[in-house]
Design a protein that fits this description.
The complex is a heterodimer of chains A (291) and B (272). In chain A, α4 runs antiparallel to α7. The longest helix of chain A is centred in the C-terminal third of the chain and has 33 residues. Chain A contains 13 helices and no strands. Chain A is mainly alpha-helical and 291 residues long. Classes of the chains: A mainly alpha (291), B mainly alpha (272).
């Protein structure tokens, strides 16, 4: 083995070992626990087969509600952040003044903790004194308890998360738009592509890799959404905002249903793999071509 | 025709700015009000007289967390940035057989839903005797920071021409010397980007703190803010003061070094 190879192994080995333990070994550990009867305070490694999964999918109403909530949340959050992000990036890229000011403002929520955002949004939604309540009072509309309502709690949280993450998709799209060679746009315009057709036929296809990246990131965030929901509603009222990640925490850490919590975690993980694995394959191909 | 379009663009950008800034505005004005002034008729308005009692109460509630967060954020930031830089260097400049596979092996960690590691994480830390110790948070944040820092440095080193390195090799320098003499000085921008990203990420984290921070002596500020939220129902001036205190370190970093923050953000949005 050459000295060069040896040094590169020394450089990469610590990371490989740490990630090997904290990511891969832990996933296997969780998978193993999900097949046990460890639904008690003390560890119980007796084999339970698929019992925990069967319970979740066949019997557990809470888990069914969680999946429905997650699949309502996901399209609104993903489409909301992506459409708004693309739209704002397009405006920022149109040669406006104060572009860096607007960019800084849009991305500001990404710099603060979801706990901070959650607390601010609870205040905005407060039914007696909050900002929305004030607005409704001025308009002589009846006050609504947004976060206490079965109807409005989930949309209220979706708005807060779109507020938090739209700056992220805006930045991804802005980088994508900046990467389109100006000649291509000019050529398309000469060919008579204008307005919406220019976007549909030229610009949107040209930012496809931004779209894929934003999509994968936003879907993956939706599937593991926890912090802001935990802070704002803890999944309530009556599971109206409950998600698998919330239930996983409750089952695994509050109720000592450790094996059930592990099974929920594995379901979240499996759903994430559906978008991440194809993505990593394309990234793998790109890096191989570069090499 | 040209001018109205421009005006419409600015109008939309301003409306969007109001949407993004309005919660921050509510945060700041409410934190500086007395509780009497926090009511439906004046919740939008700026304080008529400044009252900082909310900050005093909030600080008493979360100051320990504020200190704790620094105590694990800084070491975890240093460790993860260091490991990311040597790893990223190995992956780009001293390519070895299987380096692409190793890259994907590490990259996968970026998309990990943390739920799938939480139970083993707690048992593992307890097994090491580190549960309730600040090192549990330092190690955890270092470990889960490695994928993103490695990616940031890999993309960063890819942009440094290899010709700069070959000059060193000709003079008989070995890889370690190349790293220390040539790469390190050239890495400053990468280190800044990765550090800012990691600082923001680790400081803002909630889930690991919730799982591992059972003792007040290591509990992060984000977890303490959430507890304050439970304990101070409807004391909006205190809660907003607490939220502002929690947000200030990352807000300052963002406002001072936003350019690098965006680079970290996009450095993580894989270019391949």
């Amino acid at each position: 083995m050459s000295k060069k190879t040896l040094v590169s192994i020394v450089f990469i080995l610590p990371s490989v070992i740490i990630v090997g333990i904290f990511v891969y070994a832990f996933i296997v550990w969780t998978l193993a626990v999900s097949f046990t009867n460890w639904n008690t305070l003390l560890p119980n490694w007796s084999f339970a087969g698929l019992k925990n999964y069967i319970y979740l999918f066949a019997q557990d109403m809470r888990f069914h509600i969680d999946l429905v909530n997650n699949f309502i949340f996901l399209p609104f959050f993903v489409l909301g952040t992506m459409v708004l992000g693309f739209f704002l990036a397009t405006l920022l890229n149109s040669g406006v003044k104060f572009e860096s000011f607007f960019r800084t403002v849009f991305l500001l929520p990404m710099a603060i903790s979801l706990v901070v955002s959650g607390v601010i949004w609870i205040w905005i939604y407060d039914p007696t004194n909050g900002a929305l309540a004030s607005l409704f009072q001025i308009l002589h509309l009846p006050s609504i308890n947004w976060l206490g309502s079965m109807t409005y709690a989930l949309p209220a949280i979706i708005i807060a998360t779109i507020w938090q993450y739209t700056g992220f998709t805006t930045s991804i799209y802005l980088a994508g738009l900046r990467g389109i060679p100006q000649e291509i746009i000019e050529a398309a315009k000469l060919d008579g592509a204008h307005g919406l057709r220019l976007y549909w036929n030229v610009i949107i296809p040209m930012v496809q890799s931004s779209t894929v990246t934003a999509f994968v990131l936003m879907v993956q965030l939706s599937l593991q959404m926890f912090d802001i929901i935990w802070v704002m509603t803890q999944g309530g009222p009556a599971y109206a905002t409950d998600m698998p990640a919330i239930y996983m925490f409750i089952a695994g850490f509050k109720q000592n249903f450790v094996a059930r919590g592990a099974a929920i975690a594995i379901v979240i993980f499996a759903l994430t793999l559906v978008v991440v694995i194809p993505y990593l394959f394309t990234v793998g191909k790109i890096t191989e071509e570069e090499a | 025709m040209k001018i109205p379009k421009k005006i419409a663009t600015y109008m939309v950008l301003i409306i969007a700015s109001v949407f993004f800034l309005f919660p921050i505005y509510m945060l700041v004005v409410t934190s500086m009000k007395s509780l009497q002034e926090v009511n439906a008729t004046s919740s939008w308005s700026v304080p008529t007289h400044f009252d900082f009692s909310g900050f005093v109460t909030a600080w008493n509630g979360i100051s320990q967390g504020f200190v704790n967060s620094f105590e694990f954020t800084i070491p975890a930031l240093i460790f993860s940035v260091f490991l990311g830089s040597i790893g990223g260097f190995a992956l780009t400049k001293v390519k070895f057989k299987g380096s692409n596979t190793v890259f994907l092996f590490l990259l996968f960690g970026m998309f990990l839903p943390y739920q799938v590691v939480l139970i083993p994480l707690v048992k593992f830390m307890a097994g090491l005797g580190l549960y309730g110790n600040i090192w549990s948070l330092i190690i955890t944040h270092t470990a889960y920071g490695i994928p993103i820092t490695t990616l940031i440095f890999r993309n960063f080193y890819s942009s440094i021409p290899t010709s700069l390195l070959e000059a060193g090799q000709v003079d008989g320098a070995n890889t370690l010397q190349i790293y220390g003499r040539i790469i390190m000085p050239l890495s400053i921008p990468g280190i800044v980007v990765a550090s800012i990203w990691q600082f923001t990420n680790i400081w803002n984290n909630f889930l690991f703190g919730l799982i591992l921070g059972s003792m007040p002596n290591i509990r992060p500020v984000t977890v303490m803010l959430n507890n304050l939220n439970g304990a101070m129902m409807a004391q909006w001036n205190t809660l907003m003061a607490g939220a502002l205190i929690t947000a200030i370190p990352t807000l300052i970093v963002y406002l001072v070094a936003g350019k690098y923050f965006v680079k970290g953000l996009l450095g993580g949005a894989v270019k391949g």
